[in-house]
Amino acid sequence: MGFLHLFIVNKSGGLILHRPLGQSAPRIGTNEWLRIGSTFHSLHAIAAEASPVKLPGNKNSAGADDGIEEIRGGGLILKCLQTRTGVKFVITAEPGTSDLDAVLREIYVLYSDCALV
Amino acid sequence: MTVHAFHIFDRKGKTLFTKRYSSAVKNQPVQDVELLSEQRKLIFGMLFSLRELVGSLTPEGESPALQSVKTGAGTLHCYETISGLRIALYTNNNPNMGSTARNLDTSKTSFQNALKHIYSELWVDCVVRSPLYRPGDIQVDGHGNDVGRFDIRSTNFEKKLDAYLASMPWFR
């Protein structure tokens, strides 16, 4: 049970960071990463738009815009934390990895402590 | 767990079958046909792009199939057949199912099994094997006066689907 990748997307869809977190993570080139980042950014919003039921004001319980929180595929779990400022923290992992939400929140705290001056 | 909507798309994105369940409609204002049709196109486009995204992020040796997409408002479960037929089921996020990872995994696989059953036992049996069926001829958004078009209502697919979903422990 391992982590695969971490990527962070800013509020306009541009990629801030991408890094592999384990050996089984597939190798992805930088151009591809930029594409993945912006595609995910758009799909995040479209998922909330396409849902037959919408949350009031389209804001989720954390006060951020509603959107993709988790994607499950065969062989992959993807979790996303969207902050109120529009930054998205996305982590992918093998199925069965636990506590991904807590990990994402911790990464958010570390990001705001260290990366934001 | 409540079911909100159910859609079936073909490879090209055309809607083959769609149904909304009353729990969703109660809280939402009445939407006209155009808007719902646009929403379905969004859903198909999203499923298509998400499949590509998941495919590039999945490690080698694993199957890149999309199983579920969860947002704050609800979860979309999908199943895609080899022929490109996509079945999409919208449910809400049940709080009870988030307790242990094991429970979560089995409930997700049970959705996959349910959708697979809907395809192989209900769709193939009722619709594809119907003597009136012609591939490419199903009209969902039609105006009802196309003679010669295959109409899903001539089969008992919808009744069987409702009965099957109602028998699921997660349907209310």
Would you summarize the structure shown here?
By secondary structure, chain A is α+β, with helices and mostly antiparallel strands.
Features:
heterodimer; A: 117 residues; alpha+beta; 27% strand; globular; B: 172 residues; five-stranded antiparallel sheet
Can you describe this structure?
- The complex is a heterodimer of chains A (117) and B (172).
- Chain A is an alpha+beta fold.
- Chain A has two helices and five strands, in the order ββαβββα.
- Chain A has a five-stranded antiparallel β-sheet.
- In chain A, strand 1 and strand 2 (15-20) form a beta hairpin.
- Chain A starts with a strand and ends with a helix.
- The model of chain A has no long low-confidence stretch (mean pLDDT 90).
- By secondary structure, chain B is an alpha+beta fold.
- Chain B is 41% helix and 18% strand.
- Chain B contains four helices and five strands; from the N terminus they run ββααβββαα.
- Chain B has helices spanning 22-27, 33-57, 101-128, 157-167; strands at residues 3-9, 15-20, 66-71, 75-80, 86-91.
- In chain B, strands 2-1-5-4-3 form a five-stranded antiparallel β-sheet, sandwiched between helices.
- In chain B, a hairpin with a 5-residue loop joins strand 4 and strand 5 (86-91).
- In chain B, helix 3 (101-128) runs antiparallel to helix 4 (157-167).
- Chain B starts with a strand and ends in a 5-residue tail after the last helix.
- At the A-B interface, helix 1 and strand 3 of A face helix 2, strand 3 and helix 3 of B.
